[in-house]
Amino acid sequence: MATKIIEVIFIMFFVIGTHELGHLITGLIQGFKFHLFVVGPLGIKRENHKIKVYFNTNLAYYGGVAATLPVDDNPKNIKKFANLILAGPIVSLVLAVICLLIVYLFNTSVEKTLNIIATGSLGIFLATTIPSKTGTFFTDRKRYQRLMSNGKEKDIEVAVLRLMGIYSRDNSYKNVNIDDINLMIQDSNYQYLGLFTKLCFEYETLGHFNPETKFIFDELTHKMPKSIVKVTTTELNKLK
Fold first, then answer.
1. What is the mean pLDDT of the chain?
2. Under 8 Å between Cβ of 202 and 176
3. Which of 49, 95, 123, 175 has the least CB density, counted as fewest CB within 10 Å?
4. Alpha-carbon span 182 to 212, nearest angstrom
5. Taking phi first (over 0 means left), then psi (-120 to 50 degrees means alpha), and beta for anything else, what does residue 209 get?
6. What's the rounded Cα separation, in Å, for the pair 156 and 2?
C-alpha cells in the first residue's frame, strides 16, 4: 500500500514537472532567461548569476512553478509571454492524449501507470484553463486572456512583464518605471506585488522605505498567504 502511494506521488510530481517544463522550455527557446524551477522538493534557481539546486521547503511551490524572465523591454515580449503561458496547458493535454493512445493501441504492462499520468495531466489542464484563479493567482488561461485583451487588464499585464524584464536585465528595481508600479498597485490582483516592487524601488533609489508605502504593505500582508509573505519578507530583508 505504501509503495503504491509513493508511486502515485512520484507520478504526480512527474505530471506537474512536465506542465512546468512546458512553460520553462518555451520561455528559454524564445530567449527568456532562466530564473526558477520548482517541483515538489526539487528546486533549481538562479542566484547571484549562478544556477543552484536546492531542497525546496516552501509548500506553496510544491504544486510547481517555473519562471523565465525577458532580458529586455521588447514589445515582442508580449507575444512571447503569451506563448509561454499557453505552453503549460498544451503540454499537459498532449501528455494525457499520448498516454491514453498508448493504452488504447497497445497491450502494455504499465497501463495503470499511464492511466494515472493521463488523469493527472488532464486534471492539470482543466485546473489551469477552466477557473480564472487558483488561490491568489490567475490561471494560465485567464493570464493569457488578460494579456491578449485590449484595455486596462492588458496594460497591467504588460507593466508586470516590463518590470520583470528590467529586473532580469539589471538585477535591480532602480530603473523600473514608477508608472508601471502604480498600475499594478491599482489592480487588486497585483496590489501586493506592486507595493513590494515599490518598496524595493524606494529603497534602491532613496536608501529607505517610504513609511506610507510600508504601512500599506504591512496592512495588506495580514491578508496574504503565509508562503507569499515569507518570500517577500526574505527579499526585503536582503535589501537592508
1. 91
2. no
3. 49
4. 14
5. beta
6. 47
